[in-house]
Write a structure and sequence with these properties.
The structure holds 2 protein chains of 2 kinds. Chain A is of the alpha/beta class. Chain A contains 14 helices and 18 strands. The two termini of chain A are about 20 Å apart. Classes of the chains: A alpha/beta, B mainly alpha. Chains A and B meet through α5, β8, α7 and α8 of A and α11, α12, β7, α21 and α22 of B.
Chain lengths: ~525, ~575
Amino acid sequence: MSDKLHFNRRDLVRLGGMGLTTALPFATQFAAMGAAASTVGPSDYKALVCMFWYGGNDANNTVLATDADSWSRYWLARNAGADPIALMPVGTKPVPVGQISSITGRTVTKAVPDAWGGVLPFAPKTPQAIPAGTKATSAPRTFAVHPFLAPILPLYSAGRLAVLANVGTLIQPTTKAQYLAKSVSLPVNLYSHNDQQSEWQAGSAEGATIGYGGLIADNEYSLNTANGIFTAISTSGNAVFLSGQTVVQYQVSTNAQPAVLINGTTASNIDGSSLAPQTLQSIITDTTPASNFQSDYAAVVARSLKATGILNGAMSSALVTALPAVPTYTNQITGNTETNSLAVQLATVARIIAASQALGVKRQVFFISMSGFDTHDTQNADQPNNLGKIAQAMTYFDTALSDVGGADYRPNVTLFTASDFSRTFTTNGDGTDHAWGGHHFILGGAVKGGDMYGQYPTLGVDNGAFNNPNMVGNALIPTTSVDQYIGTLGRWFGVSDAALNTIFPNLKNFPGGYLNFI
Amino acid sequence: MRSGWSWTVAAVGGASLILSGCGNGGGSGVSRGPALDAAAASAVVATTATDAARFLTQATYGVTDADVTSVQSLGFAKWIANQETIPQESSQAYLDARLAAMVATNAKATLNSSNFYETFWLNAATGQDQLRERVKLALSEIFVISLANPVVDTRGAGAYYDMLGADAFVNFRTLLQDVTLHPMMGKYLTSLGNLKENTITGQHPDENYAREVMQLMTIGLFKLNPDGSKQLDSSGNPIATYSQTDISGLAKVFTGMSYYSPTPTSTTFYGGARDPNWDVTPMSLYNAYHSISEKDFLGQTIPATATANTAGDLKIALDTLFNHPNVGPFIGRQLIQHLVTSNPSPAYVSRVAAVFNNNGAGVRGDMAAVIKAILTDDEARNTASAQANINYGKLREPVVRVANWMRSFGAASQSGHWLVGSTSASTSLDQSALTAGSVFNFTRPGYIPPNTKLAAAGQTAPEFQLVDEVATAGYLNTMNSLIHNGIGPAPTGGSGPDISSAYSNELPLASNVPNLMARLNQLLFYGQMSATLQAKISSAVSQIAIPSSSATAAQISAAQLKRVKLAIFLSMASAQYIHQR
């Protein structure tokens, strides 16, 4: 264990909230933002958190290959158009606003990559294989992240953050030739937002009613002998990911009281009628009518009513109130203060995790999300801000869980990112369109971090003699499947291999099997 | 101030009314030959007050006595035909006037989305063109733009909403073109400023609009039979309507559209020398930026050419989409879902699709005919069948529920500006007009709510996408507050919430609870309130004592008001109300 820098928790939160830092070598950053607590979390508690980026995040600007060959093709494709989206090479200093960039020739504003400095290198512990079509001029292959992701690098070097390369929806391993010949089954409606969101969450197109998170939770549901209603929780609306065969998703707000009290139900009277509160309760929870619309609607209200007192009551415990507040977030491009929805949602998740022992739940699955990733245009103005929020939210969450009443809950909680798809390698002028395979992150104390998993692909679109075996048109063919990704997380959660093969029927198609990131 | 139609309604409660109106094409009283009179008379007599209320629940923002009377007198078909002639109040004109008034006192004033909501509620609550307003809302949930995205500005949104309203009863081909060329759609789905391909750098045209116009606005993902069911190939699998290559080909067509200018140049293409009306005027077509290479999509090939022809290419593309056999069932089914029922029978969809294909006079895409077909179909009108079908109907959308209260209880706005503001928070209504979270709208046509009886029965229920433990509680709290106190900030010079109801029709009934319940039954349940629900509410309401005549008038009316508010709240809280059947 490296020397601990002595920070108190407020400092840690403030530092995590700084957003973009200039391009310091990551090792000198706060590498020991580590366990501030002296004991570990409960041995029988696990929580899985899905952070869904709605719209399809451009992974090509999130995790980059910086070897000369890959970078030259990246540069050719993305340093083009009216507002080029190519990021700056490793080591580039930020160009002050108003100056002409010697690299691109443009007059620099805050909303162009020249102002942000070069991409930030990180080194996987396990050397990445050089794929076909990439010249092996220097091994091991080198990588970097978008400059706005600087805050997550300490998590990476502390071993709690892993990178998963080129993951996406697949039915079976698919080569370029097979894709072009249509000789293998492909997921339904690739490139369609709603269907791919459903494929990622539930393994089938829109209309799916049961999702991976719910099925995983179903298998462990018997451990939640009390308050099973709090097994699958969403802070951002209905998500099929959380629905199981038994487990029903439960919505919370991000207010101080996460469950919304229905006014009048606990009053002594309404409008002077002392009968009215019971009457209201009776009416809104009546599931008996011979109408499925009415019955199903009332069932939701009944759940809402039942859970409110229990959940809100648990929020007043000392464990919960001691958690750090959500840091302020500043959009580095506009200078404006904004709400970081991801951090706000993770704050609610952390509070419920902190209350989990009191609630008596041992296994929980959470779903948080943010939209705005569908950067068909103005990608330079929009994507960095999204990534900045992701980085702040992750550092905040890591810090919050590090000390829950003196216990470090990070080994108990694993957060993983997901998105509809990644985006086209070439630009449409100032943005990108829908693509396929992309890169993601896994965060938690049980994660074997500081490393990259999966196979980072060859980069570049076909051009003359160059034929990229990993790319069809502008889209990367995934080299790891969502089944393997979420299956591995389910395994950590405690689900048996036999059950996982039922939840992920295509898992057996992938010789790679489970991944090694946790 | 309303222009256009003005109704003069003489007498109430009876079958014979004289209606007169000015403006285009409306009737001026009943004065025709005997055969026609007999037909008209039989049409009139057939409609009960409760059936009229049920019809109005589908076709308007809320049941009023006046509307019930006119439906009973005209019959459904004529009421619809008449509604289709009533023009809308322009949202853009409202917003322009609003801004001018604001700027008069504060030179730096600007419009924001709350001002758009003002015009939405004004039209929903008080608009004479009720059917047009409901269809507008439905169209805005198919041809989605959203104020949640800052690229959509308020004035442009008003103009866009006007466009949907103006096109609600014209031809679908016109609607499709107007949507495609609208600058707010151009901004929202990023076709504005879209450049032709660059084969050297590999830069490709933005594919956003090409994809979504097919997936969401015309043909959908799978080939459909006329009854809306998916066609299947020889292996029993659905057949995709388009592939990625179709999208790439179609994307080339949507290049060269950009900011309106009376004198388009390369400067104006990129947004310089911006015309002040760019956001409310159809995009200009800039041939210099339009692709001239071959464009293949949906079996259509536009050959490569030496000179760009943006207008010509757009015509071919939009004609191709319009004429695709999917459009009738795809759009027809969604309009049925928005107005009548979430799971129309295949036969119902077929009948509506057939009208889309041919309105009876050889015209394809006649929206007026389609709307009439939807609302006059037996599956919409047959109350007994609907009540007997465990899966029939839909949830009323949250904004429609609030509009129901406004119309049925004669709510008024002190300021005249209907200052409701945003209702998008999940602790509010979880919905504001023209403010969906994405181009996929608040609710998907194919949404099946997990862990429900509807799901077990294989039923889609789009509005359930907005139903969860937070949103249902938020709705109840919002209704509780607005029924009791009204809604909206106190306007300058006013007092109390901007919008409230005096419940003047209900107060006189409060001393007799069965009469009060009967009225609410008619307004909110089209006569279908169950005896159980009525008994529950009656008991709670009756517990509020009306003081004897020895009390002051103020005390008596205070007690009456409490009864009325409680009765309305308990009614609108019920799933029986929320479910439109």
